[in-house]
Each structure stands twice: as structure tokens, then as C-alpha cells.
Design goal:
This protein has a three-stranded mixed β-sheet, with helices on one face. 66% of the residues lie in helices and 7% in strands. The radius of gyration is 26 Å and the shape is elongated. The protein has two domains: 221 residues, Cation efflux protein transmembrane domain (Alpha-lytic protease prodomain-like, Up-down Bundle); 118 residues, Cation efflux protein, cytoplasmic domain (Alpha-Beta Plaits). The longest helix is centred in the first third of the chain and has 48 residues. The protein is mainly alpha-helical.
Amino acid sequence: MPACAAAGQTCCIPWLWAGLAGEMGDLQAAPSSTLRLAWHAAIMQLDAELYRLRWRTAMLSLAVGVGMLLLKGGAYLHTGSVAILSDAMESVVHVVGTLAMVWSMKVILEPADDRHPYGHGRIEHFSVGFEGGMVALAGLAIIWVTSEKLWQGYEPTAFGWGLVAMIAAAVINLALGLYLRRVARRARSPILDADATHVLSDVWTSAGVALGLVAVWLSGWVLLDALIAYAVALYILYEGSKLVRGAFAGLLDEADVNVLSEVVAVLNEQRHADWIDIHSLRCRRHGDDVHIDFHLVVPGDRQVRQMHDQLDVLEEEVLARLQGEGSLLVHLDYPAPELTEDQLRQIYPSYGKPFEVAVCSRLTNDAAPSELGSELADGPPADTAT
């Protein structure tokens, strides 16, 4: 066992996952109920590791955010620059957004109940939307304050101190943003990914303010300071709108073509010779909670127990591929018994062919392939029977 695993550190999640996968492989000959219990135990252990990683990362982001606020606020008090003030106001939003992120992580941990049968994972998207709205609000506030300062007249001073503060803020936020992005992808956390986007946007604003301070210092043109503040405000408004757009996509269960392609890949790997066609493939994912459903066309004489066992294995494989916990629900359809081979091929586009995202995600059997196939090319054809 690696030393980091013995110490209980989360840096060994890939090792942990490989170990769990090996243990699952040893259980292939065991009854389905044993496999399911082992799989759920493995998922619970991995979820605990991921949650601790997410929580520590959120706390780090909050601590750095408070530090950046103090640094930029002090720089504004020393210089009187509205450009620095605009960057400091953005840091206020970062702190507020991180507090909302921490709160949502607490809510996500609550188990599913009668009133929330799909769990509480969707709160992540609400938190992302809240942070995006706060970012946009900060952009509008910067425009307001800058305009008021210009009307009243002001003279920024002590550019050297402000320049050092902005460069330091840019470097620290760059390191934090890259770390947040890496953890977000590793822990499959939309809320940490949104925080990474926010922090990395702050890098550009701090760098832009620093360059502007140099230009104002050299030229003596005070209006340039205000123009930089306006530019920062517009950029913040743009980034805030992107976060809000992503939050709405999650709240409305917008189709994720990458997740669908993973599901279709497993369908091809586990496909039986009598699986004729699939349509109405849908997937909703909020954090680690995954729920998938589709219509599967099979011959009408198939036994319930036979299909139940096949779909049980499929569910376990799909959830393992997506590294999540949830459910897979399948509605069984059957073709008219008098149809010929040519008629089956004409009616069911997946008959005798590998499943594809565009075909499987069409909403009804007689609908044309969806547009999702154009967003991501399907992988190489897989075997269509086992």
C-alpha cells in the first residue's frame, strides 16, 4: 500500500479506485446481490474520499479569497485607484460565493428522502448560479462606483504599492485557480469548477489592473484608471453570465453528450444479440448522483427474469463507468412479430449496427436522429452481440 494511502490522504484516489476495481473483478462469479453490496460499499468509500477532498479545497479557496480581499482592499486605501477598487469588489463576490459553495456542500450530503427522491445534488447548480449572479452584480457595482468617482474627481497615488499588490494577487489566484480546476475534474464537482472559472477570471482582471497602473504611472493620464475599471467590469459581467448559463443548463437537465457517449459505449460493450434498438436515452447527473433511462426494443418472447438479469449487469457497468451512484430504468418495447429482417432494419436504425448517441437519444422511435451526434463523434464500432 502506498504511504499516502496508509496516511489516509486523498492524493491516492486513483490507487483506491484501482484497488476497488480489482476487488470487484474477484467477485464476478458471486451472486448479483453480493456484487451489488460490494459495489455500493466501494462507492461509499470513494464518495467519502471525494467529499473530504472537495471540502478541504473549498476551505482553501475561502481562506485565499479572504486574503485577497484584505490585500486588494489595503491596496485601494493606499492608492485611491478605482481600478484596484473594482478588483477588490470582485474579491468580495468571491468570498460570498465560496460561502455559498460551502453551504451547498453541506446540503448535498443529506440523503434522498420522500420529498427529494433524487437526492439534493441539484443544489450545486443553484450555488453556481448564485455565484454567477453575484459576479454580474459586482460588475454593475464597479460601473456605478467608477462613474461616481469620475463625476466627483479623484487622483490615484502610491502606484508602486498597488502594482506589487496586483501582481501578487494575480500569481496567487493563478495557482489557486489551476488547483481548483484540477480538483473539480478529479472530484466531478460543477461547483468547484465554477469557482475555478471565477478565480482564473480574477487573474486576468488583476493582471489588467497592474498593466493599467503602469500606464497611468508613466502617462499621468488619470482617465485611463477609470477606463481600466470599466473594462474589468465588462469582463466580470461576461464571466458572470457564463456561470449563470451553466447553472441553468444543470438545473434544466441539459443533455451532456460526453456522459451519453460513455453510456452508449457501455451499451455496445454489454449488448446482447437480441437488443434490437434503443431510443429516448436520457441521463441526469448532479455530482455523484446519476439517473439514466431509455427504451430498449427486444423480441416479444423474452422472459422477464432473463431481461432482469441482463439489465442488472448493465446497470452496474454503467454506474461503474460513470463512477457514480444512482439508477438505470429501462422500458421494454417489442416489434411486431410479422416484420421481416428488411423491415426491422428500416424501422430500427440500430438493428445490426452499433448503438450511436444520435440514434439512441432521439425522443421517440420514429423520430430522426438527434443533433447530439454532431457535437461528439461516436467512437469506433463495438461488437453488437455477446
